[in-house]
Amino acid sequence: GLQTWLAIIAMHPVLGSSPMLVTFLSDKTPDHLFRMRVAFEKQVDEFSRLRTDVDLPLEDQEKLAASRDRLRKVLHSLHRLRKIFDEQAFRLEQQARDMAEVDLILQGLEVREVFGEKTFDEMSNSAQAVSKQSERYVQLQRNAINERIHVLMELLAAHNELCDRVEKGIFAEYQKALSKSLNISKIKMKSVIRGSGPDNVSTLAQREVAQCGEADALGRRCAFALHCVRSESSLAEKYLQSLPAILLAYASEESQYHSKVTDIEYVRSNRWKYFINLSFAADVEDLASVSN
């Protein structure tokens, strides 16, 4: 799971080329943590490195909200799928244990003393085969299916957490700064209309300029954050395209498992029919000999 997640991070269009990530994944020296700390302790975040002349496009907040809602619903669906697959794996594990127990019982001395040494050998072998197939399928499902779905869930959960941080953090601060700036402007306008002293109006004007500057700075940071959200939303939707392949692999493995188990059950059924018919014929012969 961790290797898969790191592979996804390495494929990220921005993080994948980050010197910090490259160093983290490739540095094999024993003191790599210390080396990374020294090399990157003064590194500032991406927004701080952004030039002031770079224009940040206005993001369509309705589209971002719709994308977030869509991905949240997909995350909920993946939770349900993961729960179903986990419960199925648990049932198959129980079946594997049950079949192993059946084999143990049929190989037991108590049964063999009554029915003979080889009476239940075929059924015992079938139970062993079903148990092994169930164990193999559970392991395969967890590694190839459930784990990959879990990675997608982690990706969507991280995206949802990012949206929450932006909404409750910088976006809320920006809205608060705009509201405060608007209130100062209203107070200044009322002071001018009422004919307040020039000192009071001048003070309000200075506060308005300072507040507008703060709002502009927060607005630029907010625009950058929304741009990051849009990029991460596109990336999350891109990785979600792997879900059909995951479910197709699940369907294929499910079909193969049931086919193999059916073959085992078919062979066991035919052999047991043969055994029962043979026993019945022997009983008929015994009855005939007694009658004679």
From TrEMBL:
MF-aspect GO terms: phosphatidylinositol binding
Keywords associated with the record: Signal
UniProt GO cellular component terms: cytosol; early endosome membrane
Protein name, per record: Sorting nexin-8
Signal peptide per UniProt: 1-16
GO biological process, one term: early endosome to Golgi transport
InterPro entries noted in UniProt: SNX8/Mvp1
Keyword field contains Zinc: no
